[in-house]
Design brief:
Blueprint lengths: L5 E2 L10 H8 L12 H14 L3 E5 L2 H12 L4 E6 L3 H4 L4 H6 L2 E5 L8 H7 L9 E8 L12 H13 L3 E6 L2 H8 L3 H5 L4 E5 L10 E5 L1 H13 L8 H13 L4 H15 L6 E2 L6 E5 L7 H9 L3 E2 L1 E2 L4 E5 L6 H15 L1
Parallel strand pairs: 1-11, 3-4, 3-5, 5-6, 6-7
Antiparallel strand pairs: 2-8, 7-8, 9-10, 10-13, 12-13
Helix pairs in contact: 1-11, 2-11, 3-10, 6-7, 12-14
The structure holds pyridoxal-5'-phosphate.
Pyridoxal-5'-phosphate binds next to helix 3.
Length: about 350
Amino acid sequence: MTVNLIDLYSDTVSRPSPGMRQAIAEAEVGNEQAGEDPTTNRLQEMAAGLLGKEAALLLPSGTMCNQIAFRAVCEPGDEILLDKTAHPLHYETGGPAALSGAMTRALDGERGIFNADQVRDAIRTRGGHYPISKVLSVENTSNGGGGSVWPLEQIEEVTDAAREKGLTTHMDGARLLNAVVASGIQAETYAKNFDSLWICLSKGLGCPVGGVLAGSRDFIDRAWRFKHQFGGAMRQSGIFAAAGIYALENNVDRLADDHANAKHLAMLIADIPGVDVEPVETNMVFFDVAGTGKTAAEVAEALLSHGVRIGANAATRMRAVAHIDVDRTGIETAAAALREVVG
Ligand SMILES: *Cc1c(COP(=O)(O)O)cnc(C)c1O
């Protein structure tokens, strides 16, 4: 990787800022596994408060947040309903099957967003030969859907449809705070429709590690056991919990800058011949390069030689993600590089 690389591959490439590193250096720590790490405890209280839940649990990754949430409620043979683009379906190495014995059922949403009729149609009749529909999982923002933000009303409709049939509701809120900043709707307002949800610290918020899972006291007590069982219990986790506290205090409102940068990038590349840009709602810019006669992999490679990294998401679909380490000048350089490599 070159030193001056403009890296729009993902918001996961964001690095801890000097202020965050200072907070990390000064963190008060203890044995997390025994509940004795004061900084972790404080972050968990902050996250529970932000999400309007009784309790929260710091975990090493977002994947573990999803998998523990499923494991806490599923029996082998149960079924999880989620969108066809959902992260746990494609990018968690088959975790629901491997760790919970659960099946997944993909719903055919638009930009990652499905409706209540699709949920009602997918929920199985109880008894007989069927698996038991157990969890409805909603991803907000939807990553594979283009960084799209769920309308609150639609969240209420799909979760009502699930609850009516006795399912529990889970939100994959890896980028919930992007949805909050884009919509002006509070995290708590989205969260009240869900039994469990989590936010990622290591993406747009710029932390090195972690996610925080929240829910009722009972749910978190159960989740705590699986955290230990999955090998996610830690010791002086205050070292990175401090980064999480710093991020919640300093890096949430600035997500608006990433959204503005993403929209700016979309605007700058919209008139490049052969480039077809999807609508931008938050920090992600998906675009198709089929019309240029090049594959996404070819464009990605050519961009790298211009010092710009943008991921090839499919044969001709690419994803650029704005984040804390790419400023307006970087965005403009990236747009100019794309124009040059496909021109
Ligand atoms: C990144 C991501 C995850 C997983 O988080 P990790 O911290 O990478 O394990 C889950 N869901 C969505 C929507 C994500 O974008």
